[in-house]
Write a sequence for this structure.
C-alpha cells in the first residue's frame, strides 16, 4: 500500500510503498476513508527538536483518522463489527499505571500516540486496538469523523467549569481553538470572544460562532478583550501555547474564574502566580487529550444533533499524495482543518 512515511531524520516526508498491516490479537484493521493533518504532523515534517527526541524512524504518520472496519483480530469481536465506520482515539494507553487504574486514561504515564510512537493512518490501511475505535455510523462524513479527535480536545477544554451564561475568551484560533468557540456556544456561553493574530483564522472563529473578534498584536490583548467583554471574562480557553497569550488569558479572567490551558508553547511562560492566580483565586486547568470515552460521547452528541457544524471547520481537502501542498497551505495560516483522502 502507499503511505506517507517519515523515513529520514531531516525535513520532509516520503510517499512510498509499505507492507499492508493485519489485525493482531485485540485489534481491528481499518480501510482509511479520511485523515486530517495536525500540528504534530507538522513537527514530524519539520523534524523539530520534539520530533527528534520522540520519534523512532521510519514511521507512518497520521493520527486523526476515519476508517471502515474490514477485519477483526482474535478477541476483538464485540468491540467492533466488520463494515462499521469509525473514528479513532489516537492515544494508546497501558491500563496498568496508577492513572489508568484510577480511570484517568487521558493522563496515562505510558501513553503512545498513533503516527508518532506507532504507525498511523496516512495510508490505505491501519491496524490498531479495537478499544480505540468509536463507531460513528454511515451518516457522518468521513472528514468530520476524522476531525472528532481534535474536536474532542476542545470539548475536554470546555468541560472544567460551567459555561451557561458565561463570557468566554478563546486565545488562539487554530482548528482546535475554533472548535472551542463552537463548543462554548453549544454549552450555553452568553458571549465568546476570539483572540488571534491571523485574520483568516479569526474570521473562521467568527463563522464558528464567536460574538467578538480581537486581532491580537505584538503587545498584550488584555485591554481589547476587556473592551469586547465589557469587563473581565468568566473563563479563558488558551489554545495557542504562546507565552504572551497565556499571561493575557490568565489576567483577563475575573477573580474566582478559571483558565483551561491546552496550547503547548515552544518556550517557558513567566506568570506571576502570586498576583495573577493565588491572590485572585483563579483556577488553572491543564488539558491533555480527551477523557476516554466521556469526551467522545459528548462530542458525538454535538455533531449528531447539529448543535455544532464541524463541516465549517474543514476548509480544504487534498489527496493524501498531495500532502506536501497541504502542509504548505497550513504553514501559510490560510486554512482551518485540512482533510486528506487516500
Amino acid at each position: 500500500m502507499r503511505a506517507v512515511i517519515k523515513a529520514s531524520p531531516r525535513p520532509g516526508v516520503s510517499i512510498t510503498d509499505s507492507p499492508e498491516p493485519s489485525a493482531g490479537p485485540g485489534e481491528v484493521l481499518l480501510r482509511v476513508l479520511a485523515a486530517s493533518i495536525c500540528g504534530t504532523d507538522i513537527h514530524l515534517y519539520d523534524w523539530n527538536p520534539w520530533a527528534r527526541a520522540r520519534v523512532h524512524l521510519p514511521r507512518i504518520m497520521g493520527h486523526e483518522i476515519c476508517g471502515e472496519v474490514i477485519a477483526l483480530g482474535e478477541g476483538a469481536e464485540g468491540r467492533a463489527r466488520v463494515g462499521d465506520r469509525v473514528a479513532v482515539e489516537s492515544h494508546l494507553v497501558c491500563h496498568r499505571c496508577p492513572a489508568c487504574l484510577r480511570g484517568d486514561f487521558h493522563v496515562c504515564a505510558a501513553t503512545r500516540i498513533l503516527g508518532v510512537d506507532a504507525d498511523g493512518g496516512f495510508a490505505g490501511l491501519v491496524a490498531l486496538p479495537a478499544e480505540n475505535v468509536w463507531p460513528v455510523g454511515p451518516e457522518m462524513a468521513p472528514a468530520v469523523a476524522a476531525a472528532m479527535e481534535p474536536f474532542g480536545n476542545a470539548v475536554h477544554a470546555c468541560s472544567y467549569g460551567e459555561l451557561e451564561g458565561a463570557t468566554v475568551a478563546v486565545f488562539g484560533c487554530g482548528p482546535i481553538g475554533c472548535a472551542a468557540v463552537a463548543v462554548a456556544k453549544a454549552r450555553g456561553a452568553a458571549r465568546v470572544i476570539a483572540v488571534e493574530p491571523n485574520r483568516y483564522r479569526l474570521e473562521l472563529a467568527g463563522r464558528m460562532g464567536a460574538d467578538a473578534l480581537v486581532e491580537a498584536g505584538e503587545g498584550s490583548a488584555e485591554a481589547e478583550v476587556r473592551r469586547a467583554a465589557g469587563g473581565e471574562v468568566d473563563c479563558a480557553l488558551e489554545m495557542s501555547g504562546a507565552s504572551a497569550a497565556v499571561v493575557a488569558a490568565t489576567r483577563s479572567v475575573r477573580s474566582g474564574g478559571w483558565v483551561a490551558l491546552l496550547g503547548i508553547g515552544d518556550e517557558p511562560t513567566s506568570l506571576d502566580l502570586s498576583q495573577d492566580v493565588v491572590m485572585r483565586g483563579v483556577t488553572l486547568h491543564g488539558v491533555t487529550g480527551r477523557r476516554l470515552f466521556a469526551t467522545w460521547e459528548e462530542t458525538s452528541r454535538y455533531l449528531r444533533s447539529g448543535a455544532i457544524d464541524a463541516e465549517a471547520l474543514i476548509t480544504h481537502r487534498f489527496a493524501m499524495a498531495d500532502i506536501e501542498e497541504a502542509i504548505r497551505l497550513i504553514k501559510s495560516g490560510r486554512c482551518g482543518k485540512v482533510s486528506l483522502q487516500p
